[in-house]
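Dear colleagues,

As part of the handover before I leave the project, I'm documenting each prediction I ran so the next person doesn't have to rerun anything. This entry is a single chain, and its sequence is reproduced below.
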Amino acid sequence: MKILVTVKRIPDPDESLKLAGNAIDTSSSKWVSNAFDEYAVETALRLAEHIGGKDRLAEVIVCAVCPQGKRQHVTQFLAMGADRAIIVDAEETAIDAQTVAKLVAEVARREACDLVLLGKLSQDTESNEIAQRVAGLLDLPQAAFAATLRWDRAGKALSVGREVDDGVETKTLPLPAVVSVDLRIVLPGSVKNGATPEEHKYSEGARLASLRGITMAKRKKVDVLTPDALGVSPSAKVAYAGLAAPPKRAAGQIIDSPEALVQKLITEAKVL
């Protein structure tokens, strides 16, 4: 199986960002990997590796749409264990979600991928649309917000568990398919590939790159493509109309008694 995993760099969420007109000023930002993309790569690696055996069950390719000179996050995912990388050389701020989806879909089509894995959202914009757009462009079955994943290698299908309001919904997807993953996908027993023993438990969370992985990452193949080479014209039909910082929270109050709290909830908060 060939698995394509999309990865993105974002401004560090722990830093305070400044506004510059209708955009965020990232000129002095520290760039980090999107956490949900780390979960997607971890999912792909769990599907690919055979714990207790020497065979590799799948090839894991990470794909990033970013300037080729700003690819530190790609190296991180190669160090985690991805086999190779594809970078689409484009400035993220100059394109919109539909253009990104077209680029990812074209890479998946050219690579003849069996599975496209994505994080459920991007932390910088909280947007959740690339997976669905890619599935639509490729006309493939999809499952969003996967919490568990079981690969039926003989049946060439995936069983995807996803949490919904009234419990857990399970979908069976024939391959090829598109799946976006939620944070519960990196719990110890969330991913089963049919080869690693069922009782095997992974460490919770996405793995850290080992020293050997960091060394090996420098030797792994990284292809750089342009949007033109993929037949996609970089454009942004969707633009931000404006950005504003949230209002500052008022200072808290110390309430002397339960009676006073109830009175404030009635007269001020008006929630009772």
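The CA atoms of residues 79 and 217 lie 5 Å apart. Residues 2-267 form a domain with the Rossmann fold fold (CATH 3.40.50.620).

All the best with the project,
I.
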